[in-house]
Amino acid sequence: MNKDAYKVVVARDLEDLIPVFMSNRQKELGNLRIALAAADFDQLRQLGHRMKGVGHSYGFDLVSTLGKHIEDGARTGDRAGLEARIAEYADYLAKVTIAYE
Amino acid sequence: MSADESVGSNFRVLVVDDDPDMLSILERLIHAEGMRAETVADGDAALVRALAAPPDLILLDVLLPGLDGFALCERLKAEPATAMVPIVLVTALEDHDSRVRGIRAGADDFLSKPVRREELLARVQTLRRLHETRRELEARRLAAEVEHKKSLLRALARYLSPKLAERVIEEMAEEGTPFRRGPQRVNVVALFADLRGFTRLTERTEVDGVVALLNEYFAVMTEAAYRHEGTIFSMAGDNLLVGFNVPFPQPDAPARAWRAAHDMAKSVAPVLARWTARGGLATGIGFGMASGEAIFGNVGSPHYMSYTIIGDAVNIAARLVDMAQPGELLASGAVIGALGETGARPRGRLALRGRGEPVDVYAVTL
To answer: In this structure, which of B10, B133, B142, B285 has its CB flanked by the most CB atoms within 10 Å?
Structure first.
């Protein structure tokens, strides 16, 4: 992934919300893995739908993009694709850097 | 703080979303605009909250635990308390059917997730202005309605007793038409006042002058009657009929009627003195008072109705006023019995025209 994709600029007035936001993303990642292991595509679709809605709202565009892919993949039952997206999400969360403006 | 900011701080936005991060950011953005945000995480709780204290705007997610956003929107739009509250569906659902469903549910606007700050704020501000304009128009409409009622009351009060006029307005508001209630049987105190010597006075006076004299006379008499909360049922020629304990209960009706008669006599005395001085003819008021059962309500034909009281008490009072001398009040024994010590002199048990049973009559000079 392009190095710039890991850089996120967040509005200064949202700074205090970001620790909780990031913590929730880690929990989300765990839930995605559990759902994938259980082949629970409905749960995967819901989690993807939620990621799609919340990511860009905070400035984390890739969270929304991955969320849409996961939602679509869950609808079609694309297990391999979902596995790849979840791995991509884990990588992103590990490397993302945040700047406040 | 500017006036606009002050208005904004009173503007309440209910944010409904089951995602805590969405709730946090929407709440933050609403606060930053000087508005108050309240957050709820499920549809059922949102319904209860909105109905208990209707907000000024609702930002509503679609996929919710409990009632979903569409169902909640429908419920809120069906409730009178929240029907006018603008609802923005904030949703990541992109399909055409979801939008159509939202419109059918009554949503006023849509906002796509992920939410863009500028778009959210632009929509909220627009709906806030619309809502405030609507509220201002509603306040003006209510003020106009109040003013209309007041002017109607002023107009009716020229023909009806003030309390009766108020009842007419209430009946019009509640039932669409006044005087729909059927005749009722009540215990009343009927007080007649009759101007003596007026016919001779009018023979010496021009028509316009007669009307002016009568207006002067009735103005003083009605004011005195209203001071004691009597209801005027008839004003025919120079004759006045005032009812007590009708149409509104007055447990002290005999005492009120008694005081009203004295007040009328005292208040009208200077008027009569002026007339005597002007015309050289003495005039005076005779009073008749009786109590008992009567029927009040609309009497007449579909073409001409009179809202009045009829019955034995009214008939007795009418006979007594015919018999009363100028400056004299004749009252039935039933009234005097209810009053206690009055200083009234017994005139005996008298046979009254058109009535089989004689009536105990008492007299007092006013």
So the answer is: B285
